[in-house]
Amino acid sequence: MLDERWVFHENAKAEPAGEGVVRRVLAYSKDLMCVENTFETGAEGKLHHHPHTQITYVVSGVFEFNIDGEIKTVKVGDTMLKLNGVEHGCVCKERGILLDIFNPMREDFV
């Protein structure tokens, strides 16, 4: 789907991204990538870091995020900025969806 102008949700492949987590890579170019992650209650995004700047938008649900050791609870409409190399992870407290934007694209997701 690299450089595809139109990416319809029904055509975006749903892939497991950990227990209770489903990832869909949406539109992307080499410089920017949009990814939807659906979490079941209790599912975790394990602590990790990567060489990409990431913004996460909470579409639905409630999550406890750990960003560089700082822990906060976030809900619908909240956003988080994770600069490249910063350790981060989350626990889903109430089933929900996170929308991640990466710069540059995550080659390991395609």
Report on the architecture of this protein:
With 110 residues, the chain is mostly beta strands. It is 0% helix and 58% strand. Strands 1, 2, 3, 4, 5, 6, 7 and 8 form an eight-stranded antiparallel β-sheet that branches. Strand 5 and strand 6 form a beta hairpin. It is globular and about 35 Å long. The relative contact order is 0.28. The model has no long low-confidence stretch (mean pLDDT 97).
Query: How far apart are the termini?
Result: 9 Å
Secondary-structure content class: mainly beta
Topology as H/E string? Answer: EEEEEEEE
**Computed Rg:** 13 Å
Tally of helical runs: 0
Number of strands: 8
Strand content: over 45%
How do the helices and strands line up, and which of them pair or pack?
Layout: E1 14-16, E2 21-28, E3 33-39, E4 44-48, E5 53-67, E6 70-75, E7 79-82, E8 88-103
Brief summary of the model shown:
The chain is mainly beta.
Key features?
globular; mainly beta
